[in-house]
Amino acid sequence: MSADPRAPLRLFDLTGRVAVVTGASSGLGVAVARTLAAAGASVAVVARRRMRIEALADEIGGQAVEADLLDEAQLDGVIPAVADKLGGPEILVNVAGNIFSRDRAEDEPPQAVRQTLGLNLVAPLRLSQLAFPHMRAAGRGAVVHISSISGRVGIPGIPQASYAASKAGLSGLTSELAVQWARHSIRVNTVAPGFFRSEITDGLFDDEKGGAWLRRNTPLPTEGTADDVVGAVLWLVSDAGRFVTGQTVVVDGGWTAR
Question: Helix H segments across 86-194?
Answer without folding.
Answer: 110-117, 123-138, 161-181
